[in-house]
Amino acid sequence: MALRIAALILKNELTPNVTQQLRQMRTSSVARSQFLKHSPNTALDKSILQRYRNLETPPNRVQATYLWIDGTGENIRLKDRVLDKVPSSIEDLPDWQYDGSSTYQAHGENSDTTLKPRAIYRDPFKPGQKDIIVMCDTYNADGKATPSNKRADFQAAVQKIADEEPWFGIEQEYTLLDVNGRPFGWPNNGFPAPQGPYYCAVGADRVYARDLVEAHAIACLYAGIDFAGTNAEVMPAQWEYQVGPSNGLKASDDLWVSRYILQRIAEEYGVVVTFDPKPMEGQWNGAGAHTNFSTKAMRAEGGIKVIENAIEKLSKKHERHIKAYDPKEGKDNERRLVGRLETSSIDKFSWGVANRAVSVRIPRGVATAGKGYFEDRRPSSNCDPYAVCNALVRTCILNE
Question: Is residue 12 a part of any domain in this protein?
Answer without folding.
Answer: no
